[in-house]
Amino acid sequence: MTTQHETILRGAEDPGLGHLRIATEEAFCPPELVGMWQELLSAGGDLDPGFQSQMGFYLRSAAERPKFIFERLQDLGALRLADMDATGIDRQIISLTAPGTQIFADAATATSVATLANDQLADACRAHPDRFSGLTAVAPQDPRAAAEEIRRGHDELGFCGAIVNSHTNGEYLSDPKFWPILEAAEALDTPIYLHPTTPPPSMIGPLLEAGLEGAIYGFAVETGMHLLRIIRSGAFDRFPRLKFVVGHLGEALPFWLYRLDYMHVAAVRAGRYASIKPLQRKVSDYMRENVWCTTSGMAWEPAIQFCRQVLGAEHVLYAMDYPYECVAAEVRDQDAMALSPAEMKAFYQTNAEELFGLPGPGR
Ligand code: 1DF
Ligand code: MN
Description:
The chain has helices at 31-43, 49-60, 64-73, 78-87, 107-127, 143-155, 179-188, 201-209, 218-232, 235-238, 247-251, 257-269, 283-289, 301-311, 328-335, 341-356, and strands at 22-28, 91-96, 132-134, 136-137, 162-164, 192-194, 244-246, 291-294, 316-317. It is α/β, with parallel strands linked by helices. Helix 1 crosses helix 2, helix 5 runs parallel beside helix 6 (143-155) and helix 6 packs parallel to helix 7 (179-188). The model has no long low-confidence stretch (mean pLDDT 96).
């Protein structure tokens, strides 16, 4: 679970390691947003069932794991740094936890939460520049304001990408109304991390009934589908230099590449769906060229090696998924993978530095 049983030296403390460890999907939550979520839960009414299940559990349960996680989500200082020290993490790339702004129906409220979260995270990154980097939170409910916030995050706050916590009230980035967000990210050459959330009401039914709507499986179903919708919308033909990052080893899509290519071509050739147009490249080409995958919550060598094989080693990056995952043994397991020192350095450090434009060692 969440308890430490050992301490792992960071790369900066262990010259023999030969690389830093940069963790790329690490979450935080402003205390003010926790309060707003508490109010939503208390108000009840027509509440999103995924949010009710997820945050009803995390914010109301007396069990050890949810308390451990929510104490750490709200810390951008000593507690987080101590956990990083104990698990050998040199740098976290920190982002607003799901559902972030994206549970709010009102666009102005959602936009104000993004601003608040970004200002807090930027302060923490300025206080600990050698340990913390940040992703820009956005409120897709107002696509133009979200695009402007990505610019502010990149140009003024020093952030190294943006985060979208998957669907926004049941809407997906495949809808061209959101494309100002994609346009801004491409123009700034800054990646968008597509992070999971619980499925929307239109999708959650049988998953929720079986207790499968969350991190155990439903996140991957929802977010993998979201990325497929984006690919099939032609967004990467419109924005060919756009970079997406997905956690949990690509939300299972790498395993599906052969069938996705085969069935996409077959459907287009048959003219089966009026909305599904030919793409300039194969579905798998977008996954190999426009998408990077991280190992958040998937500390399992066979799956990691498979992704490196089918996507290319430079497209697979380390992530812990702190504080949802905070297990030193998972770092040990990934340290023990059958990779050369150069491959290990790419996996833990330089792939992330290149993708996110981070300063190199000795900054
Ligand atoms: C969980 C996992 C929750 C992840 C998350 O956000 C989350 C979990 C509420 O374990 O319930 O982002 N995750 O990224 O895997
Ligand atoms: Mn996560």
